[in-house]
What we know:
Layout: E1 5-10, E2 13-18, H1 33-46, E3 56-63, E4 66-73, E5 79-83, H2 96-101, E6 114-121, E7 128-133, E8 136-142, E9 147-154, H3 156-159
Parallel strand pairs: 1-7
Antiparallel strand pairs: 1-2, 3-4, 4-5, 6-9, 7-8, 8-9
Amino acid sequence: xxxxxxxxxxxxxxxxxxxxxxxxxxxxxxxxxxxxxxxxxxxxxxxxxxxxxxxxxxxxxxxxxxxxxxxxxxxxxxxxxxxxxxxxxxxxxxxxxxxxxxxxxxxxxxxxxxxxxxxxxxxxxxxxxxxxxxxxxxxxxxxxxxxxxxxxxxxxxxxxxxxxxxxxx
Length: 169
């Protein structure tokens, strides 16, 4: 749904910001990934991108000292070679692409955080809500289909494994 306000809560102070239409944007939106991802994939395909779902990179194709694509395995176990002028290793913290090219870190964080979240229906929410405390943050973000994303974040010790009834375990 279009969201017209966001509230930030710091200790005893509430800061309410009403969204004013500007530059063609009249509201905030937070569609779930189940809605957003297919839209992004369709837009990429329309722009000429070749998309391969459920495919795992097994190696890189290197030509003249430059990455020129990937070797991969499909979900059916079929090996494929996919040439590309640009390969982006957007495969997470322990990126196999970064490891294979010997990428170095430019910064390494010294503090760790954890988050847990879930989707709830029929919450009385008037916009985005964020609650900040010294060692934690929580909030509610309205999303599609009458649901809201409810989240909590803090240290890994405080959040534990996450999930309903598991916080702090």
